[in-house]
Amino acid sequence: MSTTKWVLDPTHSEIGFKVKHMMFTNVSGKFDTFEATVETDGDDFTTSKIEFTADTASINTGNADRDNHLRSADFFDAAEFPKTTFKAGGFVKKSGDDYTLTGELTLHGVTRTVTLDAEFGGLLQDPWGNTKAAFSINGKVNRKDWGLNWNAALETGGLLVSEDVRFAIELQFVKQ
């Protein structure tokens, strides 16, 4: 079977995350600059090789002061670690359109294996004749596992920023 290359459609993709703030509300953010490629045998994503890169300096929570703090050495240290990467083998089918995706996430100079839940949206031909594939990917990691340890104690107890980071990722790929 021939190898198929899929390139990310960044205008229809988003790398989002949520983190609890003061232990009761979520702060949402995303990376504005990222890229991903996938290679499959034919159209079989269970055989895929996936490579993803995000520019850590492109973090965007909608608040300049918070974003600058996240880029600092307290968190991502974007000057020292300008890229976040994820490399994975194929999706593993659970049932229906539900899959898992396990790969190596490198963040802040640390590489760890993570497993994420993925929903395959299917293949579709757009109005211009391009074949597209869509995925919704969700999961949770503990930011301290990658050395992102900064926090502040609250006077009422608890911490300012949760250790858990939840991903909400929407990806659309174009068959080459």
Automatic annotation (TrEMBL):
Residues of the signal peptide: none
Domain (Lipid/polyisoprenoid-binding YceI-like) ranges: 5-174
Family annotation (Pfam families): YceI
PANTHER family hit by this protein: PROTEIN YCEI
Name of the protein: Polyisoprenoid-binding protein
Species: Flavobacterium agri
Upper taxonomic lineage: Bacteria, Pseudomonadati, Bacteroidota, Flavobacteriia, Flavobacteriales
